[in-house]
Design a protein that fits this description.
Length: 260
């Protein structure tokens, strides 16, 4: 599997623009007409109350749009959750070629050894986080490294067994198995282990008449999660959507009232 590192260039760019604007404002207060764009800054200063009223509406609306874009941005995990909720669970013995959902017990072929606790496993999702402390000694975490590795494994149910080629696999809604902190960093790993009962969505294919599962290239999905965890998710996801919809309506009503 590939290695992913955090690239918060957009965040740094936004912070840089805010910092540059603040520095310009301080310099403009000191030097006034000596600064470039003096007329524009002076007009903003003279019409501050008018712009502030618009900002009261603009910023909540901008925040709402940002949250909407984040929630709607397609990811492999979101595609997996959407597809598994609509796909029927197929028996391994009779799974048809194409996008499919299967459920069964994991069977390890060749073990990997996890980076945190050196446990034998089928695969893992591994993160490294920087630990930051504020003046009150409260900790915050910033992910600086992500990595997913997985060996070829099998899944079996009461009808048969099938091999899974894990290139591009996503571990979805799985809790961390091991967490360790030292040297100003926190190390976390989520493991796939022999004997776990899991649900997998991917593409059912065959080679020389032997079926196997791989990543679906059309939907860009090969995801795995725990059978118990996905049951809870499917139960409460409609409630979460209703809550988000209600919050959106309330926010729009507030914006409407502020504009009157």
């Amino acid at each position: 599997m590939g290695v992913k590192k955090e690239r918060p260039y957009i965040v740094y760019s936004i912070l840089g623009i805010i910092a540059a604007g603040f520095i310009y404002f301080i310099l403009w207060i000191i030097f006034k007409d000596r600064m470039p764009l003096h007329e524009y800054a002076s007009e903003n200063s003279n019409n501050y109350d008018s712009y502030a009223e618009k900002a009261i509406v603009f910023f909540p609306l901008l925040f709402f749009v940002f949250i909407f874009i984040v929630l709607m941005k397609p990811t492999a995990s979101k595609r997996f959750l959407r597809l598994q909720s609509s796909l029927p669970t197929s028996k391994i013995h009779s799974v048809a070629k194409g996008l499919a959902e299967i459920e069964g017990t994991l069977v390890m072929k060749t073990p990997l050894f996890s980076p945190v606790n050196n446990e034998a496993c089928i695969g893992y999702y591994y993160t490294i986080e920087d630990i930051d402390r504020d003046s009150d000694d409260k900790e915050s975490y910033r992910t600086i490294h992500r990595e997913t590795k997985c060996n070829i494994f099998r899944i079996k149910d009461d009808t048969g067994i099938i091999e899974v080629e894990p290139e591009g696999i996503e571990l979805v809604l799985l809790e961390e198995t091991n967490v360790s902190s030292y040297g100003g960093k926190r190390y976390k790993e989520t493991l796939l282990k022999d004997g776990q009962k899991m649900l997998l969505v991917g593409y059912a294919d065959s080679r020389n008449g032997i079926p196997f599962m791989r990543k679906d290239e059309h939907y860009k999905v090969l995801g795995i999660t725990s059978s118990s965890g996905i049951t809870v998710w499917n139960k409460y996801q409609p409630l979460l959507r209703s809550f988000m919809f209600t919050c959106s309506i309330i926010l729009l009503i507030i914006i409407y009232i502020l504009t009157q």
